[in-house]
Amino acid sequence: MIAPLLLLACLAAGDPPAPALLDFTPEELARILEHSPLPPAPPDPTNRVESDPRAQHLGQFLFFDTRLSANGAVACATCHQPARSFSDGLPFAQGLGTATRHTPALWNVAQNRWFFWDGRADSLWAQAAQPIENPLEMGFTRLGVLRLFSTDPDLRAAYTDLFGPPPPPPADDAAALAAPQLDAFYANVCKCIAAYSRRLVSDHAPFDTFVAGLRDGDPAKLVALAPDAQRGLRLFIGRGQCRLCHSGPNFTDLEFHSTRIPLARPDLRHDSGRLQGIDQVQADPFNGAGAFSDAPAAGHEKLDFLASGPDNIGQFKTPSLRNVALTAPYMHAGQFPTLRDVLVHYSEFADAFDFDPGHFEQMLQPLHLSEGEIADLTAFLGSLTGAGLDPALLAAPAGPR
């Protein structure tokens, strides 16, 4: 806190370290500092290979491998496209069919505590298990994955390096359903995909440079945020109350809220969000407390006291705002095409939808933002676009090992 105090002294003396720096108050500075820098993702003890370079490489290969789909044309990267900031630009995810939710971007995904919009998975590897077998997404089977690894010598060798030889494929699908070895194999494959996903990190945005300047008083860093973005930042941490949900360095409280988002389609009024997500994560055989977790005790710590009730109806996860300017459309069903549309919603709530029964956040009040304030907030959100990834992470490697 030494540098911000020195900065305040400079401001009080009329000698700001950068001509365009706003006169942030001590309280505002304290709030700003809470949002940067982004720390390393917390470890996931339920996945013992999450930091193994061999698992990360195999997972990256699988992320782009269309053979993990029923038609041989859909991969994880079909919806999570590197060129589209690991989203797809569509309101609803499009795989073998059309899903009922928007594809979330994967930036800093390992920072999350729960996964999917409704939190129906409690780890990255449990999350990876679902799209492969979802008939609207990849439509494949874990038996199909095992047969692929059994017939591809490179995949088999990569797996064996990490886990030992994969089990022999069962003779038929009926036998596979009763084979715990198949589920253990499938969990290992998904843990590799998760190991790659952990590497999709967005940081070192202009906002981070600005905050570093607040800490050390370097004028060259303070100019990273233009005056309009600084005004938007002041709104974000102040009157707008955006920070109450989009808190911390990843700009999310990791929780679930009903924020009166309009329905994307009439049939989606029955999408109960977090309510069904809690039931599903507790029943998931791949959850962190289950037989295929590498640390069941850690999984129990998350799951044993998780309870659902009417207040969970219509709640969806608070997404990170890192790289948010690159990931339109927005919300769990792509309801808003642009950031401006999002801000207009929170400004007026003219199109609000409330689940009944259900509960929306009572702190949400119309902000009545001016056009200038909307432009300032948009500029600030644009300042959260981070430095690009290593290009080697943006495409399939030549082989799985």
Give the CATH class of the domain at 53-201: Mainly Alpha
Strand runs, count: 2
Using the 3D structure, state the CATH architecture of the domain at 53-201.
Orthogonal Bundle
> What is the 3D form?
globular
- Describe the strand arrangement of the main beta sheet, using strand numbers: 1-2
Low-pLDDT stretches? 9-19
Helix content: 25-40%
The third-level CATH topology of the domain at 53-201 is Cytochrome Bc1 Complex, Chain D, domain 2
Task: State the secondary-structure class.
Answer: mainly alpha
Beta-strand level of the residues, as a percent range? under 5%
Largest sheet: 2 strands, antiparallel
Number of helices: 16
The ordered string of helix (H) and strand (E) elements is HHHHHHHHHHHHEHHEHH
Distance between the termini: 46 Å
Supply Rg.
Answer: 23 Å
Name given to the CATH homologous superfamily of the domain at 53-201 = Cytochrome c-like domain
The average pLDDT value, as a whole number, equals 93
What report would you give on this structure?
The structure is a single chain. The chain is built from 16 helices and 2 strands. By secondary structure, it is mostly helical. It has a domain of 149 residues: Cytochrome c-like domain (Cytochrome Bc1 Complex, Chain D, domain 2, Orthogonal Bundle), CATH 1.10.760.10. The chain has a two-stranded antiparallel sheet with strand order 1-2. α3 crosses α9 and α5 packs across α9. It starts with a helix and ends in a 19-residue tail after the last helix.
